[in-house]
Amino acid sequence: MPGGGGLHYFKMIEVEQTKIKGFLCCPSCGKMLQNQDGRPVTKLGKKNKLKCPNCKSPLWQQVSFAYGGRVAIADYLNRQYSGRYNLIIDEAHKSKGADSDAGYAVADLVAGASKVVAMTGTLYAGKASSIFYLLYRLFPHFRRLYDYDEVQRFVEHHGLQETITKTKESDTWSSAYGYTRENVRVRELPGVSPGMVTMLLNNTAFLKLANMGLHLPTYTEERYPIPLDPRLENGLETIKTLHKTAVELAVKEGAIGLLSQWLYLSLGWFDCPIAETLTAVNREKEVIGSYDIEGYLDSKDQLLDDPLAKDAALLEIVEAELAQERGVGVFFAQVNRRDWMSRIQKLLKERGIYSEILRQSTAKPQDRERWYQGFVERCRERGQEPVLLANGNLVKEGLDLIELPTLIETGIE
What we know:
With 413 residues, this protein is α/β, with parallel strands linked by helices. The chain is 30% helix and 14% strand.
């Protein structure tokens, strides 16, 4: 307000601002949640299914599947649609495991299905135990005969077993020594008893393609022997010598790892002849030897003026099949270590042949069918039938390779 001397006075207002903190309250009773020290709780810990200490109401809720909750789809179908669907199981042997995710999923789906058809080309893996859990999940009458944990009793009834008894007599004789000790071990052998057939007949139909009434093209399998390229003979001698060493170490030192490495080397090195080093270790995991294999190629995809004998034969087959307007799938083994697909792709490109490589990283399993269809279109846009280079395990399920009437296996996995 105006005062003497022309001075002006203003009312001073002091404002105090306080930071507001959030804390948690029970949604039922509204009481603030406190920790053991009496302080407000601002964040719940990782412990699941907490309750309000005041009214005991749950501090959690089940989230609907549509809003982000996670539930196994097989369990969901069993609970929500039980008795309202029929089920066809393809590659049923994939669910034969006792405690595998696939096995549990099939058990849930079968439990909720009205009718079930299980299809497989590999009914059992040679031993009676390999079919036990598949039968248990499919057939109610089988579950009345055997409990889930009675696979051994099933093997005794329908399988083959071998009993191995080892007897050890002591050379020392006293009041505490000189007893004869026996070690008895029972192991399952490949094979089943005839009684297995009678168990399966009422619920099993054995079909061949000829029984399906389908008009299929003639199917043939051919072996194509290729003489060893003379440029790889030095490597062959090295591998022969290494085999003798690997056997000696396996017998004397129990170092079977080198023998296993040698096996894969002998199967794959001639396709991808690069320098390698194999290591042998004893039972204590100590390195007892290192063995070098001299390579003929500097890298896996190196091109030579004169291709290796197997490369040249492969190119010849692909060209001959394309000339007959037949698509070709070429399958390679040991691609994680001895991958020579890029070399073959370069050689094909030099001859004007378009091809694509399918690797595990190329497309996820659920996307491979769409990728494959796009691959076929890309090849035909270039005026040729498709040529696919891949590891066979990536296409053995879920893909219809109709556009590839010629399939070539270049090696043993």
